[in-house]
Design a protein that fits this description.
This protein is mostly helical. Helices cover about 50% and strands about 5% of the residues.
Length: about 90
């Protein structure tokens, strides 16, 4: 299992894995694209089609406030990576 809050060097490697640096990069790239008004939140004030926002919100809006912050995207991607590892690389999911 990947934990990005602390040192994850002891996590066994998996083919095609994302590490904490990858997830941070993806988070920032996602935000640069979708946070069109640059207020630090992805929400109805951004130029995001409703169906895309609904899908991302369903999985990533942890506090259910209809706004997704960087922390929520980052944690959502960590959850996604761990789900992928559980299915495809059990030795990388402990």
């Amino acid at each position: 299992m990947l934990y990005c809050e602390d040192n994850c060097d002891d996590v066994p490697p998996c083919d095609y894995e994302w590490n904490c640096d990858d997830i941070l990069y993806i988070t920032m790239d996602f935000f640069n694209y979708y946070d069109t008004n640059q207020d630090g939140q992805i929400n109805a004030g951004d130029n995001v089609d409703a169906s895309s926002f609904e899908i991302v919100g369903e999985y990533c809006d942890f506090n259910m406030n209809n706004s997704i912050c960087r922390w929520e995207v980052f944690e959502c991607l960590v959850d996604h990576e761990n789900s992928w590892r559980e299915l495809n690389c059990p030795e990388g999911y402990m």
